[in-house]
Amino acid sequence: MLISLNVADERLTTAHRAKLAYVYVRQSSVNQVRQHQESTELQYRLVDRAIGLGWPPERVQVIDEDLGKSGAGGVDRHGFQKLIAEIGLGNAGLVVSLDASRLARNNRDWHQLLELCSVFGVLIADGERLYDPRAYHDRLLLGLSGIMSEAELHQLRMRLHQGERQKAARGELRLPLPAGLAYDRAGTIILNPDEEVQARLHSFLPNSRNCKVPAV
Asked: Which residues are catalytic?
């Protein structure tokens, strides 16, 4: 939920507003970017959240290089690294994201962000609240948000894995096939029916014309 508040907050100072506000936008996969456009649009509208907190529009910067990238770690998130660099250089007064899960899905990245924001006096805002990582209770809430974000990802993975196991037990699990093979409507593995694909396959494997794909 995105709430625009123009109410003055004592944690906001002229020193914060003298620096830039950064809006971080992320979706976990390309499919989410394509299919969940409302969510992406909602994140872009966080620019209005920063403006409502007192930042001029020209001093609000959007970082959206990580659209289509997971926040779980192990993936190079250039946008997140750019955000970390801007905080470390003392350029940021505010970081805005829809929720903790957009910024990071692992505690390593999340606590790195919190620590830097605490050292350089950067505030963090989501769609509902404003947090000061230097304040005990705000730091506690932010820490819990990061833990829940990582735990939520673990639960999503567990449910996905259980679903795959159930499909496999029923003989309905379809795994990605090597190039040149495809599933027919009955679920049998066959040579790709596309004649161009078959021609290219035969050009690399001359003996493939005599090959038969065993029924599965």
From this structure: 28
